[in-house]
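User: Please fill in residues for this 166-position structure.
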């Protein structure tokens, strides 16, 4: 889960909180929501975005936006990090640089753990090619591969947000 740099008791609480967020993301996914919805909504509600709105915003990103491109878990995670580190002033260079830094940091961590952020590479099949979606479903890859991506993305976001508090 990441390095814990607090006392033993505080470390245990941090681990428990991380597990709660990851579990929430997993529950969204298990309840029929896509990977992007699961990760983003887990964190978006903490920033005042209503659950229904968060789910709607991220609906279109599963399966690499149905083209096998960037994993929806990664998209949802980057959007969640944008709630903390995003900028709304186009001239705020410091905020822009921080947002970009956090994006790169997330991507590096995810790639370190999973090897890529590309959905078709993670699944081993390209959802946008004729017949491959059916093959993905027949092999149960959405159930066997995708939960790990949701878990990984949620863990990294949770770690990064906790590190910002320290």
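Assistant: Residues filled in for all 166 positions:
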């Amino acid at each position: 889960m990441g390095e814990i740099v607090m006392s033993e008791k505080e470390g245990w609480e941090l681990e428990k909180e991380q597990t709660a967020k990851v579990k929430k993301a997993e529950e969204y996914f298990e309840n029929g929501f896509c990977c992007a919805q699961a990760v983003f909504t887990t964190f978006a509600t903490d920033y005042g975005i209503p659950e229904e709105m968060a789910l709607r915003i991220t609906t279109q990103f599963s399966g690499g936006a149905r083209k096998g491109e960037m994993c929806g878990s990664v998209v949802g995670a980057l959007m969640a990090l944008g709630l903390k580190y995003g900028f709304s002033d186009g001239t705020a260079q410091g905020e822009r640089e921080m947002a970009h830094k956090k994006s790169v940091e997330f991507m590096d961590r995810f790639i370190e753990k999973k090897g890529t952020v590309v959905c078709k590479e993670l699944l081993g099949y390209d959802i946008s090619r004729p017949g491959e979606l059916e093959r993905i479903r027949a092999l149960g890859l959405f159930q066997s591969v995708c939960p790990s991506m949701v878990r990984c993305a949620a863990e990294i976001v949770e770690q990064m947000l906790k590190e910002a508090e320290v």
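For context: Residues 8-30 form the longest helix (23 residues).
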